[in-house]
Amino acid sequence: MSGLTDVAEIDRAIQLAIAPAFLMTGVFGLITILANRLARLIDRERAVRAGTAAPQMDEQRFIALRARHLHRAIGSCVLAAFLLALLIVMSFVGILLQLNVAWVLAGLLVLAMVSMMIALLLLLMEIGLAFRHLPLAHDV
């Protein structure tokens, strides 16, 4: 391979890596949202346990269930980010070693998106639990 071809191949690999890198930015944003929600739950649980906040009926059970959903959602997002990073690595490896990795790349992208969808569903479930636990939720 000539030097010019090497540069063209690397340029192509970089172009292919841009979309998954942008997707990773979105995943990291979702992780931030999930971590903030989890931190607020932990703060609330500590305040209830310390007696500085009045607990609502069955609140500790709801907090634990919500925290479990958030923990799983964060794990699912981390898995999605890992799969996207692996996709970027595999695209470079495929181009540099002249391997046909199209099916591998497609599979990694599909798995990353499924993992992201699971995280979003877990977030939706956690929000539903939070809404049901609101005192106002019973009035609607």
UniProtKB/TrEMBL annotation:
Q: Where does the chain cross the membrane? A: 12-36, 73-97, 103-124
Per the UniProt record, one Pfam family is DUF2721
UniProt keyword annotations, A-Z: Membrane, Transmembrane, Transmembrane helix
Q: What is this protein called?
A: DUF2721 domain-containing protein
